[in-house]
Amino acid sequence: MAHDDKEAPEVEQLKAHHIHGHDLFSLKPRSKEPQGPWREPKAGFDAERHVQNGGNLGVRLTATDLVVDIDPRNFPEGRDILAELRERLGTDLLDADEFPFVRTGSGGFHVYLRKPADLRVAANLNRHGLPGIDLKTEGGYVVAAGSVHPDGGIYRWAEDELWMPSVKDAPAALLELAVRNELPASIKTDCPLTVEELIDRLNGLDPLEYGKGRYEQWIELLISFHAAAGGDTDAMLAFQAWSERDPEYANGGAGPSIEDRWQGLEADRKGGITWQTFARHVAGVAPSAEIAASDFEDDLPAIADEAKPKKPKKPNVEVDHPVLHDWVFVGDASSFIRRTDFKQYKQEQWNAMFADLCPDRNLPSLVYKNKTPVRKFEELVYIPGRPPTFDNAFNLWRPSAAEPRPSDTSIIERHLELLLPDETERDYFLDYMHFLVCRPEVKMMFAALVVGSQGTGKSAIGLLLKRTIGKRNVSQPSNGEVTGNWTAWQQGASLAIIEELMTLGKLEVANKLKPVITDDTLRIENKNMPLYSIPNHLNILAFTNHDDAVRLEDGDRRWMVLSSPMEPQDDAYYDDLFGWIGSEEAPGAFIHMLQQRTPKLNPKGRAPMTAGKLTMREASKSDIELTIEQWLEEQSGPFAHALFRVDDACDELRRSAATKVSQAKVRTALKRFGCVKHPRNTNAGGGLPTCQLWSCRDHTKWEAEGPAGRAKAWRKIEEANDAFDG
Fold first, then answer.
1. Which of 52-56, 515-519, 590-594 has the highest mean pLDDT?
2. 121: Cβ–Cβ under 8 A, 6 or more apart, which residues?
3. Is the pLDDT of residue 163 over 60?
4. Whether pLDDT at 603 is above 90
5. CA 11, 15, 18: angle at the middle one, nearest 5?
6. How confident is the model at residue 462 (pLDDT cuts 50, 70, 90)?
7. Contact criterion met (CB below 8 Å) for 193 and 299
8. In the predicted model, what is the mean pLDDT of the chain?
9. For the residues 213-223, what does the mean pLDDT come to?
10. Which parts of the sequence are annotated with region: Disordered (predicted)?
11. Which parts of 510-628 are beta strand (E)?
């Protein structure tokens, strides 16, 4: 696609990436090539400024990202691959109402979807007879919207306004096509050494000798070590730690991660690199003292050059320092975690703190070999009610220190009566708090939002819950954290309290919180830390002074909105209230009070309808929605006839509305008010129009007419309009 004019990157295209939580990094101008190491986030990187300076951007993909990269240039001549894909999936990935996607600078498409974090996918769909469709996920990247293709085309979101559907789970049919054939994690190998002995030999090598400019030697070592270890996971972690001793590697570089490379190898592949190649690499490496040198010479064939000078033997090193008993290592988070406060460090940070305890200043390698008191766990979880460790998992949940004790709770009961005088709504709130406090193992499928005037003591409820549940089980994110890219605030808590939910960015807030409210897992991503997922047991309680704090759709099931008419009280009232909340007996008394309830609220059901929810739903309607609603009621404007085109509705809105109009926003509003999109007529025979038609009423009638019947009716409407205008 050639372009005569020199296109410039478009900063406004970045907003949708921020809404979706995408992690952006720098590419060279008018290029797909990274501008330096890209695997790890760069502190202080300003994406907007980079684009303003003419640079391109990439989207660093995570384990739960799945981007379908469609390139029609690679479709076989005479085949409609997109139609074949639609038929296989039962849905259209290029339906802008359903899936957010970018039109690439070369005429292709990037469709953004979600997948399970542990699902490994193939690179493309070629094996299913669908060429031209690639799959991108963790370890890869795609060019971001707003960037300029080398040929001059701009990468743009499918709509002219950055208001689009949230990223959805990939269709099940697509995941079935995408799944990569996997081998078992460990395969029998004829290498005579144990994994521990192999790791010992590996650590005797200098990673700098396999560093910059020596990629072929490094990859040969990786493949041969994999073959020797039979694909063992501990061996993979050890190879990663060994590689990161080279600063060039530790600072990040292009290409797949070691884990991705490791999983893609076949330890028993015939005719490939074998464990004997690894033996050649370590021929000059003496084993540790605990492993006799004769073992190495007896077990391994005499394939090494015996003339090579032997490196000095490494001493048998074990480190048992009291401080190390406070730490654990968790594999999926690739992090060291302190037991007392759950402080989390990536491996190089942790080693920097404690390297002086180890002679070779590589303490993590001893952890991998079980030479320290640091316990290793496979996964990080937060599951209320389960023990701190179970099934090779490290559980971040800890029970509250508060014990239920009967005591006077009249102060908090009075406050709740003033805050929510409607008994039904107050019962909803008390039931919600019952589950938060008495049954924290229950993940509720909707959030609670209390709306009321400033200065009435709404936050007192949050303070009491924090003291009752335990502050380590409560997160208090700011609006910036909620809408930002990092999600560490979601980890290690059963309750997130948002003190003041702001109307600014209300769409972003609603979109960001959707997966927190309803998904089974949470994707935890923090600056300079690896991405991982944990089970979702996080519930949300938010407070706001604004009636339109969250954009609510008709049929919303995620938000229980409770409106408070309470006015601020005198100082003595709040002295008593906060004095009681801060007292020693308050948490136990509150637990006892809530335990007496038999909740009627269904924690797994739809959020109940309330007066506050109706008010917020109306208040959150945009000018466009209000105008469309009025036209539909009056059967005027573009809805004077039962059939209409979205383009005509957009044109009418642009003439009457004082805000920018996008087709995506209009289509969503039309669906909200019950309008129906019908299949278009694709046969232009007889001069029939092939435009996309919608109906605003009489839907059954127009569905029965079929595409050709609707096209004929539309042609009559156009002819009548032309005659009227004439």
1. 590-594
2. 66, 115, 135, 137, 175, 178, 179, 180
3. no
4. yes
5. 125
6. very high
7. yes
8. 83
9. 80
10. 18-40
11. 521-524, 532-535, 539-544, 559-563
Quote the pLDDT of residue 48.
85
Say whether both 491 and 628 belong to one domain: no
Mark out the alpha helices in 400-475 (DSSP H runs).
Answer: 410-419, 423-438, 458-469
Burial environment of residue 57 by CB neighbours within 10 A (0 to 12, 13 to 18, 19 or more) = buried
**Do 584 and 642 have their domain in common?**
no
Rounded to whole angstroms, the Cα distance separating 678 from 693 reads 6
Point out the domain boundary residue: 567, 584, 618: 618
Q: Which helix (H) or strand (E) holds 525?
A: none
Q: Note whether 68 and 169 are same-domain residues.
A: yes
Which band of pLDDT confidence, cut at 50, 70 and 90, is reported for residue 313?
very low
Alpha-carbon gap, residue 470 to 465, rounded angstroms: 8
**533/529 Cα distance (integer angstroms):** 13
- Tokens 């006015």 label which residue? 567
The dihedrals phi and psi of 643, each to the nearest 5 degrees, come to -100, 145
For residue 562, report the phi and psi dihedrals to the nearest 5 degrees. -120, 120
For the chain, what is the radius of gyration of the CA atoms? 30
Residues 512/518/521/526 CA torsion (nearest 10 deg): 20
Q: Give dist(CA 521, CA 119) in Å, integer.
A: 14
Q: Contact, 560 vs 608, CB < 8 A? A: yes
Domain co-membership, 650 together with 539: no
Structure tokens at 444: 């509720």
Segments forming the whole domain that contains residue 279: 195-299
Structure tokens at 455: 């200065």
- Of the three residues 377, 395, 424, the one that is the final residue of a domain is 377
Structure-model confidence comparison of residues 185 and 486, the more confident one: 486
Distances (CA, A) of 220 to 217, 276, 308, 315, 636: 5, 11, 20, 27, 72
- Inter-residue contact 192 to 299 (CB < 8 Å): yes
Please report, rounded to a whole number, the percentage of residues in the chain having pLDDT higher than 90: 36
Distance in angstroms (rounded) separating the CA atoms of residues 331 and 185: 15
* Number of DSSP helices (H) and strands (E) in the chain, helices first: 25, 26
pLDDT for the residue numbered 20: 76
Q: How far apart are CA 467 and CA 484, in angstroms?
A: 27
Query: What b/e sequence results for 174-207 when a residue is b if at least 16 CB atoms lie within 10 Å of its CB, and e otherwise?
Result: bbebbeeeeeeeebebebebebbbbbbbbbbbeb
Is 262 domain-assigned? yes
Tokens of 725: 């205008």
Contact 266, 183 (CB under 8 A): yes
Residues 607 and 547 in one domain: yes
